[in-house]
TrEMBL record:
Entry protein name: ABC transporter ATP-binding protein
Organism domain of life: Bacteria
Gene Ontology MF, one: ATP binding
Keyword Transport part of the UniProt annotation: yes
ABC transporter domain: residues covered: 4-226
Keyword Ribonucleoprotein: no
Length: 226
């Protein structure tokens, strides 16, 4: 089944020096459990596309469907992770992980238990009373991932989530993240300008090309076994 369907998305920004069409005729579907990388140069519209899928931005035209339902606005079924880990410095790792549930008014004994399980399964339980500054960049990124997974999203969106890490850490973290996402069977859409990263992480690669004033093309190479 398609967990996500993006249909004919177009986004035009108005500014003082006229219009910028960031996205034109973008359509694709993502099946359950797939990891789709969307790769393209800086400024080609990757963040715009992800913000639209996250429901943080309304497209000029086009539609987004999650589990067959058209979305308007943010959805509790979608988790969103950005370049910065956005952990709150004054809260412990445990409290940070619960925070994602709190802001969504989803904190119940069951969801708390899920959060604790994730911390245990992915080696952060012993660090639960530490503050973000006491953890390495890789551990913080893992904590941020667990905070997002605690809400049990149907779709995880990653926006250049690893760009801020140094090269060595990035290699370890991306491997770590792939392992966790495969295990949890989370459907993921990641945007990145990093071609090797898109290939090493994705089951499927979409290429967003930026040629000014030309329709953007999506090249769909599906590496998945049938
Ligand atoms: P990417 O994430 O691939 O770097 P963005 O989605 O950030 O690309 O931006 C796509 C295009 O839209 C760029 O040309 C950018 O300058 C333009 N753009 C992005 N946000 C705005 C905005 N708020 N107002 C006007 N133009 C914007
Ligand atoms: P508060 O009383 O401030 O709401 P909590 O009871 O939520 O605090 O958590 C205080 C500390 O107790 C946490 O940092 C964590 O180490 C531990 N803790 C609380 N609940 C659990 C739990 N279900 N499993 C494991 N540790 C927990």
């Amino acid at each position: 089944m398609d967990v996500l369907e993006v249909r004919n998305i177009m986004e035009t920004y108005q500014s003082d020096n006229g219009e910028t069409t960031a996205l034109r005729n973008i359509s694709f579907s993502v099946q359950k459990g797939q990891f789709v990388s969307i790769v393209g140069p800086s400024g080609c519209g990757k963040s715009t596309l992800l913000s639209i899928i996250a429901g943080l931005m309304k497209p000029t035209s086009g539609e987004v469907f999650v589990n067959g339902e058209k979305i308007s606005g943010t959805s509790p079924h979608i988790g969103y992770m950005l370049q910065r880990d956005n952990l709150l410095d004054w809260r412990t790792i445990y409290k940070n992980v619960l925070f994602g549930l709190e802001v969504r008014k989803m904190l119940t004994p069951e969801t708390r238990e899920r959060a604790v399980c994730l911390l245990k399964n992915y080696g952060l339980y012993e660090f639960r009373d530490k503050y973000p500054a006491q953890l390495s960049g890789g551990m913080r990124q893992r904590a941020a991932l667990i905070r997002t997974l605690a809400i049990n999203p149907d779709i995880l969106l990653l926006d250049e989530a690893f760009s801020a890490l140094d090269y060595q850490t990035r290699l370890t973290v991306t491997e770590d993240v792939c392992r966790i996402l495969k295990k949890e069977k989370i459907t993921t859409v990641m945007v990145t300008h990093d071609i090797p990263e898109s290939i090493s992480m994705g089951d499927r690669i979409l290429v967003l090309s930026a040629r000014p004033a030309v329709v953007q093309e999506i090249l769909d190479i599906d590496f998945d076994d049938p």
